[in-house]
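Encode chain A's predicted structure.
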Amino acid sequence: MRYVTFYWSIMGGITDVEIFKTKEEALKNFRANYRSYFQIHDRFEPRDTPCAYGFPHRKYYCMSIRRFKKFAKQEGGAE
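Encoded structure for chain A:
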């Protein structure tokens, strides 16, 4: 199964979509990049997918491609 990391906000919708072949690659990318979207300093360390980091109105996500397609459909974004 493929996995996706992406940024979502109320104003901008879904952006910065990256697709990975394995869960491990996706989690590695998520851990390397989630702090660059926010100025939050805490000890968040995701261990499994799905995971999200941020605020209710904007978040950085990591999830399976199936879940992403449902999320994109619900948010009105393109698949």
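The beta strands are 3-9, 13-20, 51-55, 58-64.
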